[in-house]
Each structure stands twice: as structure tokens, then as C-alpha cells.
Amino acid sequence: MNFVHPYFLFLEIIILVLAAAYMFAFRARRRALAAFGENELMERLSSAAPVWHILRATMVLAATACVIVALAQPQFGAKMVEAKQRGSDVLIAVDVSQSMLDEDIKPNRITRAKTLLADLVQQLGGNRVGIIAFAGVAFWQCPMTLDIASVNLFLDLMDTNLIPQGGTAIGSAVRLGVQGLSKAPARTKAIILLTDGEDHKSDPEGAAEIAAKEGVKIFAVGFGSATGEPIPLRDGQGVFTGYKKNKKGEVVMSKLDEKLLSSMAAATGGAYIRAQDGTIDTARLVDAINGLDKNKLSSRLNREYEDRYQYPLAMGCVFLVAALFLPEKKRRLQKLARGGQ
Predict the structure, then answer these.
(1) Residue 304 lies in a domain
(2) Which of 34, 48, 177, 225 could disulfide-link 91, Cβ–Cβ 3.0 to 4.6 Å?
(3) CA dihedral 181, 187, 189, 195 (to 10 degrees)
(4) Would 325 be classed as within a structural domain?
(5) What is the pTM of this model?
(6) Is the domain of 193 the same as that of 102?
(7) Taking a C-beta distance cutoff of 8 angstroms, is the pair 223, 194 a contact?
(8) Cα separation of 107 and 102, whole Å?
(9) Which residues of the chain have pLDDT under 70?
(10) Helix 170-180 and helix 258-268: axis angle, to 10°?
(11) Residue 325 and residue 14: Cα distance in Å, rounded?
């Protein structure tokens, strides 16, 4: 047997209080009758026999106990019920190239992206979520999973040193994501792209077309400024050592490519959102994800108990009704009067 609200059972102490109150009342009644005359005579003249008082008190106590048990909502007799979890498949692709070290968003782009990602993942509970990290190449950082806690564990590993191969291959990340989402039905899956939009010949627009054909929407979040900023370099202690330079010795400027990201999002029916000062309206992004079609993500059998509170409640009502129909008075005075005539 199982109780949904077992704490109500502590109210059974009321039974002890009521029982003590009844015993005190019975004794007080007997002392009061004894003060007027012999106990046997006074009992015969009283309105009801002691046995009826005791029986009525017992029924009231039993009714109270049954109601308390009903409040605890007993359950027994289990059945197996299939529980289905429905949601969408959401892949988050995070740019970890060196350009994400740019400090046009404080403290830098990658740190703000990770902060956004941590907030976003918490709000995506109930969906299947995975993470792809990309720079010059793309690889799975976290496979698609319903376990949001596991996704959070991988967030701490996101860093610009994660992928040694330089460059930014947005197209590779999108194609890898589409491949990983291929088994999910169309319109139930999306890629959230966190990047500054700089790409090095990976054909991101072609990848977006592939995503559109597979029914994958792209929601691009752009980090950085359109004017461009140099990429700072720091040593192991975080001390600034200069700016990144190309093979010609020129300082590399990193710019946010909003045109590319907008084009990719539009091609798939998604949306582009710019991270103003490193922050975005996550509610808008989550609403867009929630607007996707839902797919059955998992199914398992759960044991469910049948509610049986009706039985103790019915018994309590029977006891109360029975107590009401017990005789209240007797006619001994009338019988004595007739006998005396």
C-alpha cells in the first residue's frame, strides 16, 4: 500500500485526544449521577444506557480515523502505464575559434557565448540537446541527450584551445549537425549557431540549403561588432602579449558577418539574433524552439497505483450515520410511572 499524503496520518493523534475526552466525560457523568443517588437507580432514570454512549463514541472515533486515512489518499493495486516524452531535437553549434577571443564584447565573445549557452540549456529541458564545437574543423562535444545535467558538464570544456586547427568552418559544423539530426522528423529539429559569422571557405550558405532540405531550422546568434576588432593574445597566466597577425605580419581584424548569418537563418525558416553587448532575449529564442513540432523522444513503463481513498471515506460515512441512529433517549420514566399506578 502507498499513501500520496502520508503526513495526514499524523492526525490520528486526534483519535487519542477524542478518546481521552470521551472517557473524561463518562467519568464526570457517573460522578454527577452518584451525587444525586444510587448509581443503579440514576442510570435507570437517565436518558440513555451507558452502553449506547460508549457505542456512539466508538463510532465517532472510527469515523474520524477513516476520514483521516482517506485524506492520506491510500493507493494499492498497481498498473503499468506507458509514459511518452515528446519534444524537439536541438543542436547547439559553438564557435571556439580564436576570433571568439575578441574583446569587443566584455570580457570576450567566447565567455559571453558560454554564459548564454548555460542559460539557454537550462530552459531547453524536455528537449533532446547536443553540442558541436567548431573552429577550423567541427566535432561533437556532447551527443544528443535528454540529460540536461550531462550537457552542462561539457560546457566547462568549451574553450578556444579545444580545437588546435585554426580557422572557422561554419559550413562544416552545420553539415555535421544536419547529419546528426537526420533520424529526427522534419520540422522537429533545429541548430542554434553561436558565432561571429566569420568563415574560411566552408560554404556555410550551401550547408544552410542542405539543412533546409532536411527540415532543420537554423537560429543564428551573432557575437561581435560590424566594425571589427583585433584579436588579443594572452599567455597561460592571462597576460596580454599582443594581437594576432597573419602571415604577412598584419594585425587580424575580426568582424561580425551579420549578412551571412541572416542569410543562413532565412534559408531555413529560422531567425537571426544579434547579441547586443553579449546578451540576447533568450525567451525569444526558447519560444522559437518551443514552436517546433514535437517528436516522441523516449518511452518507458511506469508503475501507477490506483487511488483507494473512497473505501475509508465510505466507511467513515457509514460509522457517522450509524452513530446518528443510535437511541438518544429511553422511556424508563414512563414505564416507572405506569408501574407505580
Answers:
(1) no
(2) 177
(3) 110
(4) yes
(5) 0.66
(6) yes
(7) yes
(8) 9
(9) 29-30, 32-50, 80-83, 278, 298-303, 327-341
(10) 20
(11) 24
